Amino acid sequence: MLPTGVKETQLRESNSQKVHPQPMEEALNQTPKALEALVSKIFMNISSLKSAYIQLLVAHTPYEPDKIQ
Hints:
Blueprint: H1 4-15, H2 25-28, H3 32-60
């Protein structure tokens, strides 16, 4: 655990940091097909993750040692 003085210093340093938003022009210049492909890939990856998680849950409930790898 950090001493109190160190925590306060870190808080002050993080509070003084500035956030600079990225320009929207870059996103607007992409073609609709490119954006559609990007969104499609994102949804496909999320679906894949969900599927893997469900398979993990099914493999452990009820406990069957043969299904666990």
